[in-house]
Amino acid sequence: MFQGYVLSLAIWVPIAFGIAVLAIGNDRAPAPARWTALAGSVAGFLVCVPLWTGFQPTAEMQFVEMGSWIPRFNVSYHLGVDGIAMPLILLNSLMTVLVVIAHWEVVTEKVGQYLAAFLIMSGLINGTFAALDAILFYVFFEAMLIPMFLIIGVWGGPNRVYAAVKFFLYTLLGSLLMLASFIYLYYQTNGSFEILDFHALSLPMGAQILIFLAMFTSFAVKVPMWPVHTWLPDAHVEAPTGGSVILAAITLKIGGYGFLRFNLPIAPDASHYLSGFMIALSLIAVVYIGLVALVQADMKKLIAYSSIAHMGFVTLGFFIFTADGMLGGIVQMISHGFVSAALFLCVGVLYDRVHSRQISDYGGVANTMPVFAAFFVLFAMANSGLPGTSGFVGEFLVILGTMKVSFWFTFLAATTLITGAAYTLWMIKRVVYGAVANEKVAKLQDVNGRELTFLLILAAAVLALGVYPKPLADVANPSIQKLLQHVGQSKIG
Amino acid sequence: MTTATFSYATIAPALPEIVLLALAGALLVADLYLRGGEERHATYGLAQGALAIAAIVTLGQMGGPSQVTLHGMYVSDLLGQVLKVATLVTVMATLAMSRTYLRLRGLLTGEFLSLALFGTLGMMVMISAHHFLTLYLGLELMALSQYAMVALERDSARATEAAMKYFVLGALASGLLLYGMSMIYGATGSLELTRIADSIEHGDSHAMLGVFGLVFVVCGIAFKLGAAPFHMWIPDVYHGAATPTTLYIGAAPKLAALGFILRLLANGLQGMTGDWQQMLVVLAVASLLVGNVVAIAQSNLKRMLAYSTISHMGFMALGIIAGDDTGYGAALFYGLSYMLMTLGSFGAILLLSRAGFEAENIDDFRGLNQKSKWYAFMMLIVMFSLAGIPPTVGFFAKLVVLQAVLDAGYTWLVVYAVLLSVVGAFYYLRIVRLMYMEAPAAEISVDPHPGTGWVLSAAGLATLVLGILPAPLLDLCVRAIAASM
Fold it and tell me: How many CB atoms lie within 10 A of CB A156?
């Protein structure tokens, strides 16, 4: 019945619930706001389910909606998804449910505003993935900054304000340059803001390089790529658990998505021309940031650096221009969404009990929290790319794709199998195993039903994607083929 | 033209001004006899009523044909009507917001209200002027009322100093403007805008003298607008004047100045577009730099908003630099959205001020979210709108201006404006940060005066709604420009 409006519902249902939560939020009696938020996030997820069930495995844009918005400048409310965007929308809607479950006993201050910020952001992120009009995309893309800024700055740790402002300004600089390139493209297409028209446009090499760099600034900050990654560890460490989950699982993916939707198809020649540069930055992220992660004393910081390294794999996969690499990048994005979210939630579980994120404050957690330890170890294995978990599929495909291009790239990329395992498992060894380190650890209570719920959902997702990734590959493959074919054709002339 | 006809048909287009003049005069007399106590119900009601009636009369004229009347002195067109309605509504909102603040400080007098009305009349005359003489007449009526309004708080040394600075520099600017006008008169042989345009177009004018005159005129305009490097008076006057006066000076006159620029540069001197474009580029570049960078160092909110005004006027000037209908439409849209944001930001200062306490330091906004979620949220919308973040109207204002500038071929200006917008975002964020991320300041309490609260909420919501649905306003701006050119 609502087939024609699935994407609109995916965007506006969470936002509407967010506004309702904002209105009924009350710190003395937070229960109504909490239940409304849970209802909103579940409803937001359910309206996205038709996207999966009704998706046709072709490269065409589906669930298209078209409405006039600002006729004077040909800006339209144009929505649609292909096999690249659709899984990301589902991932986002699922994560929102988990974040709402995870906050329950943990956040006690300004609960209504906290939940409203997440719900509104969830809708905006869905809009970012679904927008087919450049200005519409930009509005969602930028508006997202407002709730994220507040989430980090209001509910974060001691240095939250610095982190929030850094996050905001870094992102704003990149996106304004992207906006300038949108306006340029608007005139080149004789007055269209349609992203698909941008794809079809012929451009000289010089213009392509400038557009590529403008958009690169925007998306590289989001991914984040070395050397503009420095906001991420700050933001992650200071953000509340839910904020870290959404940051790592979703907002980083917007950077990767941006490369696929904008950089590659709009400036294919520049993408080829600059691919060496992109691969170099990606490999630096994989190798160097991996080593940086090794020496972190703070668990959240360690996972944050590990995120940068994993996202390096994603951009590497995109810029070697092979089908395996690109599929690997996409699978890696989804997998990293689950795994990093799970790891941040695990750290959150520990932090709520001990109020420390330092590795040195723990030891022997397995003795007091056996169930939790099992999950934590599973997610750590996934993070280091163990076969059978989702982390393996993406990394393996990217390495496979890279092998077709260059042995040395492959060699460098493959070092992650060692460093990734090293930093993750070494953290596990120090936190989970060994003798009980101190009294606080001795008094730990194992996970309760609420925590078990989100850990189980994530564990199921990680294993399912690891053992049987075919459904995801089937959805994404036609779009990847089309994109590769498009990128293979020169636009000059 | 030759026969002196003076019928209702010739003066009818000027009806809004005539009505406002009559009512303002009536108010001046009536105030002597009316007793409204401290609240001055009757005088205040009369003032708001006069503005409302003038606005309704103007609205009634909308949709009529453009016409020049009163021997070429006065023009009535959609551009003028849109600007006049916006001006009148802004002044009404200003008065509604300021009422309690003024009463608590003994400033809610008949003088204040009638000066406000006469100043508004001056703005309306400026907007509808089609002749240098009318332009100047309107400008001076507005400016003199404003000097007096700043000086009205006569026991305050700061206000007196501000009034003095404002008057001396303002008089200088008027002198520059008059001098420039006289040179243009010398070069073209006319004071009427259409004839000046004809004369330049047909090459009958003395080009060198005309450009000299233009330099002085642009300097005068830049002063009134507050564009760098003629911005020195803005921070001092904004800071020194009582907040309602600051709001009065900071909001509506910018629309009048925009009308003035559009009439003078875009209509009268369009033949010299290449010349004034270069001058405006310098003004815009300097304003964006000074406004955004110096604002970072301010600890007083009124001074910060003063520098923010300078940067926004620079941005608005960018639209005019584009030099075509798209650009003028963008500038108009920018001006109208800036009105909303000005009302919102100064409204917040008025909201937090009480008897004996001025909430004008940035630190006074500390922890506002804990005191009042709603007003903190309104202020958040306004601040993000000033920074140009969607989904607020400030984003679309910036977008349409950048679009026009890029179309005119000034790519470097676009990149420059974009980079300074990031600098600008930093100090708007600071307000949001203080409101949401800091513990509240002890002395702040929010018990909004009804007028202030309502208008502030309306401005905040309008900023958001127009940010989501900007099409109708954008359309109106484009039509207004098309009708006037």
Answer: 24
Q: Is residue B442 exposed (0-12), middle (13-18) or buried (19+ Cβ within 10 Å)?
A: exposed
Q: Are B420 and B346 a contacting pair, CB within 8 Å?
A: no
CA proximity to B309, closest of B335, B277, B280: B335
Residues A476 and A330 sit within 8 Å (Cβ to Cβ): yes
**What string of H, E and C letters represents the secondary structure of chain A?**
CCHHHHHHHHHHHHHHHHHHHHHHCCCCCCHHHHHHHHHHHHHHHHCCHHHHHCCCCCCCCEEEEEEEEEHHHCEEEEEEECCCHHHHHHHHHHHHHHHHHHHCCCCCCCHHHHHHHHHHHHHHHHHHHHECEHHHHHHHHHHCHHHHHHHHHHHCCCCHHHHHHHHHHHHHHHHHHHHHHHHHHHHHCCCCCEHHHHHHCCCCHHHHHHHHHHHHHHHHHHCCCCCCCCHHHHHHHHCCHHHHHHHHHHHHHHHHHHHHHHHHHHCHHHHHHCHHHHHHHHHHHHHHHHHHHHCCCEHHHHHHHHHHHHHHHHHHHHHCCCHHHHHHHHHHHHHHHHHHHHHHHHHHHHHHHHCCCEHHHCCCHHHHCHHHHHHHHHHHHHHCCCCCCHHHHHHHHHHHHHHCCCHHHHHHHHHHHHHHHHHHHHHHHHHCCCCCCCHHHHCCCCCCHHHHHHHHHHHHHHHHHHHCCHHHHHHHHHHHHHHHHHHHCCCCC
A111-121 tens-digit pLDDT? 888 888 889 99
Q: What percent of chain B has pLDDT above 70?
A: 96
Q: Is the dihedral of CA A71, A75, A80, A82 positive or negative?
A: positive
B393 to chain A: nearest residue by CA? Answer: A139
The whole-number pLDDT of residue B443 equals: 62
Assess B412–A contact: CB distance below 8 Å, yes or no: no
Interface test with A, best of B429, B463, B466 (most A CBs within 10 A): B429
Q: What is the pLDDT of residues B56-70, one digit of tens each?
A: 999 988 878 888 887
Give the ipTM of the model, two decimals please.
0.86
Q: Check CB contact under 8 Å for B429 and A184.
A: no
Most confident residue range from A189-203, B299-313, B444-458: B299-313
Q: Which residues of B touch A183 (CB under 8 A)?
A: 399, 402-403, 406, 414
The overall average pLDDT reported for chain A is 86
Give yes or no for a cis peptide into B229 (omega within 30° of 0): yes
A21 contacts A112 by C-beta, under 8 angstroms: yes
Instruction: Determine the Cα–Cα distance for residues B152 and A215; give it in Å rounded to an integer.
Output: 53
Residue B20 · residue B51 · CB < 8 Å: yes
Residue A372 CA from chain centroid, whole number: 24
pLDDT at B1 (0 to 100) = 45
Q: Write the single-letter amino acid at B465.
A: V
Predicted TM-score (pTM) of the model is: 0.90
Q: Do A183 and B422 touch (CB under 8 A)?
A: no
* pLDDT value for B2: 46
Q: Does B88 touch chain A (CB under 8 A)?
A: no
Taking 90 as the threshold, does the pLDDT of residue B202 lie above it? no
Burial of A387 (0-12, 13-18, 19+ CB in 10 A): exposed
